[in-house]
């Protein structure tokens, strides 16, 4: 900032190959020619920001665009063959990524932009994804990734278990090797150790309050939900109400349903304000293989919604 007597210093970004590469990505996305990367924010956002803010956001944008270029090149797409995007969609992405310092979220922004610009991409890119990503914290993203990685590892475990059981059915008995029960026990233990280590590694530095707040945010956005087995049955009671001198009346009692919906509303945010029980990210389950006698394995207490699955695919390289 400056005055009439002391004008604000001119902000000059250092010219470099990195900035030139970022400018090429921005030019292709905007289908225009820019006077260096420093002109991007001016072209997109006009004179909304002062020099200090503009420089800070430009640096964030450069980081994202360079990562976008890397994703496109890894997919075999030269920058000149990438797609340009509608300005409304591009505005939302540039605005969001230029305000982001979190490394994991920057990676998601760059992957989202790269997938949108990839002409061979078969991932569904909904215009709302940039808005969703802009509403996430780094912890929110870590929770989503943890659930996604857990599901992937669990699917691999189930596939390996089926393979062992198929071998057991064909061969009946192993000769000179491990028993089938022991082989299943080993892969179950390996998975259990991974789940525990992954949870500790990802969330050890976060308080239970912060994790609960993130869960509330993800519930509000509609990216996670409680597993179906936790939903109580018979939320609506239907019966016949007898009336004197009149025909019987079919009635539905939805009080349980309304109470359940109120509880879900609390879980998605109001519960935090009312200082009620904080939400936990994980729960414990025992191995479902009868020969295994071990401690329970932790697993996410929530499932990804279909929207979350599509969103994470769009924000992944």
Give a verbal description of the structure.
With 317 residues, the chain is mainly α. The chain folds into two domains: 17-134, no CATH class; 139-314, no CATH class. The chain contains eleven helices and six strands. It has a two-stranded antiparallel ribbon with strand order 1-6. A two-stranded antiparallel ribbon has the order 2-3. Helix 3 crosses helix 5 (103-117) and helix 4 packs parallel to helix 6 (128-134). The longest helix has 34 residues, at 138-171. The protein is extended, with a radius of gyration of 27 Å. The two termini are 40 Å apart. InterPro entries: Abi_alpha. It holds the Pfam family Abi_alpha. This is DUF4393 domain-containing protein.
């Amino acid at each position: 900032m400056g005055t009439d007597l002391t004008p604000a210093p001119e902000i000059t970004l250092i010219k470099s190959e990195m900035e030139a590469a970022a400018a090429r990505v921005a030019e292709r996305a905007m289908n225009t020619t820019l006077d260096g990367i420093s002109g991007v924010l001016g072209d997109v956002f006009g004179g909304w920001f002062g020099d200090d803010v503009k420089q800070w956001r430009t640096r964030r944008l450069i980081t994202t665009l360079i990562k976008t270029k890397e994703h496109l090149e890894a997919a075999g797409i030269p920058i000149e063959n990438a797609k340009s995007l509608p300005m409304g969609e591009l505005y939302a992405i540039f605005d969001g990524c230029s305000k982001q310092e979190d490394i994991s979220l920057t990676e998601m922004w760059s992957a989202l932009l790269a997938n949108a610009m990839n002409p061979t991409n078969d991932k569904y890119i909904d215009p709302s994804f940039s808005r969703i990503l802009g509403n996430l914290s780094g912890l929110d993203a870590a929770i989503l990734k943890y659930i996604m990685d857990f599901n992937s590892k669990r699917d691999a475990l189930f596939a390996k278990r089926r393979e062992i059981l198929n071998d057991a059915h064909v061969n009946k008995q192993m000769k000179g090797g491990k028993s089938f029960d022991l082989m299943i026990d080993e892969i179950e233990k390996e998975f259990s150790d991974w789940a525990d280590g992954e949870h500790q590694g990802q969330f050890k530095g976060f308080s239970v309050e912060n994790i609960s707040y993130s869960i509330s945010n993800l519930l509000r956005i509609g990216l996670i939900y409680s597993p179906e087995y936790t939903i109580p049955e018979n939320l609506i009671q239907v019966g016949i109400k007898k009336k004197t001198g009149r025909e019987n009346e079919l009635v539905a009692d939805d009080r349980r349903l309304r109470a359940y919906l109120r509880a879900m509303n609390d879980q998605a945010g109001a519960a935090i304000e009312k200082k009620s029980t904080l939400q936990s990210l994980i729960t414990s389950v025992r191995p479902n293989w009868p020969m295994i006698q071990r401690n329970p394995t932790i697993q996410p207490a929530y499932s990804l919604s279909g929207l979350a699955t599509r969103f994470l695919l769009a924000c992944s390289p």
